[in-house]
Amino acid sequence: MNALMYLKLCAEVKLAKFLRDEKGEVNIVATVVLIGIAVVLALAFKGQIEELLTDLFTKIFKTTGDVTKDANVSH
Asked: What's the CA gap between 69 and 73, in Å, rounded?
């Protein structure tokens, strides 16, 4: 009988601890809110982001072309 009482008490303690622990739920909500903020900012600054990426890729490809052209000249 004592073993059953002990198991019942352990189960009640674990259930109470599980119901009080809400860390996982808060992290999920915070993650969803941060993703929402990122999406709103991306939409708000869409034009500037496109312009920045276009400039970056233009410079990257121009630099890559210059490097390969310099490598071909030295051979």
From this structure: 6
Supply the pTM of this predicted model. Answer: 0.44
Domain boundaries, the chain: 1-44, 45-75
Q: Which alpha helices (H) appear in 1-75, and where do they start and end?
A: 2-20, 23-44, 46-73
The residues, any chain, with a CB within 8 Å of residue 13's CB and separated by 6 or more, are none
What is the rounded CA–CA span in Å between residue 3 and residue 62? 77
Contact 34, 27 (CB under 8 A): no
User: What is the per-residue pLDDT across 44-72, written as a single tens digit (0 to 9) for each?
Assistant: 999 999 999 999 999 998 887 776 776 66
